[in-house]
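Service request form, structural biology core

Requester: graduate student, group of Dr. S.
Request type: structure prediction, single chain
Budget code: on file
Notes: please return the result as structure tokens.

Sequence provided:
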Amino acid sequence: MLEIRALGGSGEDSRNCFLVRWDDGSILLDCGVRREIAAVEVVYPLLTEEIAKNLNAVFLSHAHEDHTAALPYLYHLGYGGKVYATEETISLTPGFLRKWHDYAQANKEIIPFDEEDINKVHFEKITDAPSYLISRGRSGHMLGSQWYLFSIAGKRILYTGDITFDGLLMAADELPECDILIIDCAYASKFINQKNSYEKLAEIALNTLSNGGNLLLPVPANGRGIDMYLYLKKQGLNILVDAAVIRNTVDLRRQTEWVKESDLWSDCEDVVTVTGKEPVRPEVPSVIIVPDGMMTTAKAQGYYELLRNDSKSRIVITGHSARGTLADSIQIEDYRKENNILAGVEKLTIKVHPDEHDVVDLVRMTKPEKVMLFHAKEKNCTELKKKLREKGKEVSCSIRNTIKYD
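Core staff response, request fulfilled:
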């Protein structure tokens, strides 16, 4: 018997968590939250004490909250085993767990675990993982991110985690063939040309600064945040950047096993104007790069307040914005009118996941019998499911859905 069940993420855009059960055991692939303020059963995966107490292991694809921040809840429910991940993910994840806890607490959200449960998470380097993990590789999403191939109950299960082959700096390894594919399809229904997206970003920045405004760019301090920082720096633009982004850029350059060679690395350790503790309007029009793409941090919100009444300035959102976050709200016209926001707001996707064309191509390459889609709402996967079923694939794309072999 083999069963794969989505406890979150499939047919949804977050709280990614997948249970793999067979006659001799069970494992969990990621354990994330939905990054918004809502009821526990909406924010956290559909975990139970029975599931938690019977798990043999947990495998993390990478450190982001929508893949990791429910780990303390899992331990609160009775899990006492190990969480396997790369050394880089092990280093980064505690910060994301704390960030999520503090955000939920500040917004008076019900937190279904105790603060000490954060310290119970028992990380183990992936090099010491059980023998049913037969292969793994870089997924190109962020430092430490990986895909996994398992051999369980006679079937090869490939879990992509968040994956992209289109990052400017992060390297990704070719996916192997499998029987069951659990695949990131965050940009289902979309077709994104990464080169065009970066050219558009540079155009927006140049036009904004030329007109005397500032461009606020809230980004993750890792991943695409570093890509965008170095890309815009290469354009010769004035940049005011958070120290965390510079520090992560320098650290990433040293991680030669994770990155591509690129001319963007030239002079990456040069000192650029760095933001201070308090938001200050730049002396000359600049691109202002602050951590946190959803604008939940005090620094991101501080620069927003500084620029919101300036009609010459712009804010560009380049990734997913959870409902209720500032990055989400300022894209809503009614909210902008009610709050008299004069700065321009634009959504421009910088690709850190597969688009629909990529998913179809990756399914063709990996040749699975069965496919579980995740990281996109079910309504956005209609055409993608149709395309895959026309190719003879059994496709699952809904919370609580299962893939079974008797």
